[in-house]
């Protein structure tokens, strides 16, 4: 707070000095005009130019910034040296503005996060804090309107500079023409959009076998963990020893596992943050593999593999990224083969004596899903629609038209009947044992008289001799007590 008040006092002093200077310069210009007019009247030769001198032509006077004590309730009267006087910073006036002779910049020239990201080394720019490109040149600190223009450089220097500029431009063009890793590995291949957006390819309805899906996803997941482990091991060895010390299998992309590891969560390094965000994109792939489920949409299957490839691109692993790109291409190839097989079997059924095998389970699941779609005639190839209608006419559910399905059902029913028969035999044997136990118990007399009942009967017998209530009340108590279990 004291620093701000001392700085305000210094600024007030500077304003007063500038006002005094402007007043004196105005008086000086008026005096010079008056002298020139007098010399003209006397016939003396005056100066070649009567143009008044500008303020900028006054040679700069070196001043030392010293805070001045001010009085008033809104200023702190405690002497406090400003930073400029503490480190002996010299300030000079240049066209009415104070200029630092050490060419230091003000605080507002510091980098922001957005401007630092545009530099070659963002972290270094943020740590340094000052945009050094805004420093005043040595020859420009005291320039004024009367300053002479700078001499043109010699031809040899200009040629050297032109050659350097041409080399820089050629280097920039070379960098622009060099494809990035994402481009080389076809991370965002336009052909993918053409395949998944074209209804004729059947990509909207075709489903791959479950085992093939899990195989492709598992291979892509393992490649991603291997590439991530190698990159972290080279770039951040301390973090690697802390989180994944021994093997790439220790890398797990569960959401809670990533949050607990806190790898890269407390950093401002843009390179590490990009990798952390890409690791979050692999969470869905990990969930599918840890909780296996059918991926019925080909585009979703491609998106899961793409997340793995994107992380490999971030960690600069071109070899493994190309392998994952091959897995994505195989998804499209397998889908095309399924459509071709459906079209081929449609042509073969016209031949006499054709006995075709049942459709695979993943194709039957596709037919079943087509039947549930309202506008199915507008987004599936005609061959797939005709095959689906023919399969639905048979009235089978998925897997019921397999040759051994009926035999397996009969075997299961026979096994169930044998289990039921064995259960009934064991039940009859247990019933016979319980009947024998009941007969044995019936041959012996059962005395249900409780100890409390015997005591009440003795009391009733003793009271009958006394003639109290004819013995009715105690007898009724005894009966009630025997019923209630007292």
UniProtKB/TrEMBL annotation:
Residues 141-188, 416-486 are annotated as: Disordered. The keyword Disulfide bond does not apply. Residues 433-443 have a biased composition (Low complexity). It comes from Pseudocercospora eumusae. Keywords: Coiled coil. Residues 417-430 have a biased composition (Basic and acidic residues). This is Uncharacterized protein. Residues 159-170, 454-467 have a biased composition (Acidic residues). Residues 7-41, 298-325 form a coiled coil. It comes from the Eukaryota.
């Amino acid at each position: 707070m004291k620093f701000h008040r001392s700085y305000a006092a210094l600024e007030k002093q500077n304003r007063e000095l500038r006002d005094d200077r402007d007043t004196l310069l105005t008086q000086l210009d008026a005096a010079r005009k008056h002298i020139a007019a007098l010399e003209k009247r006397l016939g003396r030769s005056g100066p070649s130019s009567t143009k008044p001198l500008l303020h900028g032509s006054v040679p700069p006077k070196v001043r030392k910034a010293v805070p001045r004590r001010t009085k008033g309730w809104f200023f702190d009267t405690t002497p406090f040296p400003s930073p400029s006087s503490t480190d002996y910073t010299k300030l000079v006036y240049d066209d009415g503005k104070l200029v630092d002779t050490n060419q230091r910049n003000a605080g507002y020239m510091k980098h922001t996060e957005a401007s630092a990201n545009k530099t070659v080394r963002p972290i270094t720019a943020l740590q340094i804090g000052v945009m050094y490109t805004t420093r005043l040149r040595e020859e420009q600190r005291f320039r004024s309107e009367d300053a002479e223009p700078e001499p043109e450089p010699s031809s040899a220097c200009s040629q050297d500079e032109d050659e350097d500029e041409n080399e820089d431009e050629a280097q920039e063009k070379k960098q622009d023409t060099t494809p990035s890793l994402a481009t080389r590995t076809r991370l965002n291949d336009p052909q993918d959009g053409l395949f998944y957006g074209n209804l004729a390819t059947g990509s909207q309805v075709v489903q791959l076998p479950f085992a093939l899906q899990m195989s492709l996803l598992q291979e892509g997941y393992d490649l991603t963990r291997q590439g991530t482990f190698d990159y972290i091991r080279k770039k951040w060895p301390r973090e690697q020893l802390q989180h994944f010390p021994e093997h790439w299998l220790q890398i797990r992309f569960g959401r809670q596992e990533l949050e607990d590891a806190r790898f890269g969560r407390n950093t401002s390094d843009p390179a590490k943050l990009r990798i952390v965000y890409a690791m979050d994109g692999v969470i869905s792939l990990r969930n599918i593999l840890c909780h296996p489920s059918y991926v019925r949409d080909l585009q979703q299957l491609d998106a899961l593999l793409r997340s793995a490839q994107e992380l490999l691109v971030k960690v600069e692993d071109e070899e493994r990224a190309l392998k994952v790109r091959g897995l994505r291409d195989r998804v499209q190839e397998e889908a095309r083969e399924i459509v071709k097989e459906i079209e081929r079997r449609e042509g073969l059924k016209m031949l006499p004596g054709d006995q075709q095998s049942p459709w695979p389970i993943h194709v039957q699941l596709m037919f079943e899903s087509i039947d549930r779609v309202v506008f199915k005639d507008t987004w599936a190839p005609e061959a797939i629609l005709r095959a689906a209608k023919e399969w639905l006419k048979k009235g089978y559910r998925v897997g019921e038209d397999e040759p051994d399905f009926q035999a397996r059902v009969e075997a299961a029913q026979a096994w169930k009947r044998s289990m039921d028969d064995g259960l009934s035999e064991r039940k009859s044997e247990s019933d016979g044992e319980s009947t024998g136990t009941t007969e044995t118990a019936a041959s012996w007399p059962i005395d249900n008289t409780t100890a409390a009942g015997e005591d009440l009967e003795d009391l009733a017998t003793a009271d009958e001799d006394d003639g109290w209530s004819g013995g009715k009340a105690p007898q009724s108590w005894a009966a009630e007590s025997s019923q209630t279990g007292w």
